[in-house]
Amino acid sequence: SYELTQPLSVSVALGQTARITCGGNNIGSKNVYWYQQKPGQAPALVIYRNSNRPSGIPERFSGSNSGNTATLTISRAQAGDEADYYCQVWDSSTAWVFGGGTKLTVL
Amino acid sequence: QITLKESGPTLVTPTQTLTLTCTFSGFSLSTSGVGVGWIRQPPGKALEWLALLYWDDDKRYSPSLKNRLTITKDTSKNQVVLTMTNMDPVDTATYYCARAYTQHGDSFDYWGQGTLVTVSS
Lengths: 107, 121
Description:
The complex is a heterodimer.
Chain A: E1 9-12, E2 18-23, E3 32-37, E4 44-47, E5 61-66, E6 69-74, E7 83-91, E8 95-98, E9 102-106
Chain B: E1 3-7, E2 11-12, E3 18-25, E4 34-41, E5 48-54, E6 59-61, E7 69-74, E8 79-84, E9 93-101, E10 108-111, E11 115-119
Parallel strand pairs in B: 2-11
Antiparallel strand pairs in B: 1-3, 3-8, 4-5, 4-9, 5-6, 7-8, 9-10, 9-11
């Protein structure tokens, strides 16, 4: 089965750039999706197909994917960006797979 | 405006069968490329995909849970129903339904608010 590995937590200073990674075997050959989940809320899609933003998602959110690592980058981090972030791929053997989630703290 | 809402019991006893209904609006499950899926999240833990049903009645299940899951649709009522048999306390989680649309790849672009299901005797 296909597995995705995320750091448990990432911290970023207010206004700085946060990078959240998602590791997987040859993940660069797959499309990666990123979700933001704030406390008590449902997840929300913030990046689809590696680097595309759904309507309404700020340009501060961007994504990249190469080799064995995909990265969600949040520029000019704001207090409102504090949340759990999950990566997700579709794999032919496991279908929809989510990473373990990363808690982003804005200091 | 696209909305989804989960409904069902908040408490089930071990070995019971859980039936959850997702009622949606703002899109049609008859539209090519559209699907509705179920994802769960145990308290304090990560998301886990369970099942998905496409507009053409193609059904997909998590390999680890497929023997316990059934997903069906009632297009006229804009509903998707998930049943999970032989519930266990480890199945305690918030259960979400979400829309999948191939325009956004293999992702879930709209989610319901979720419903917490507790499995306990």
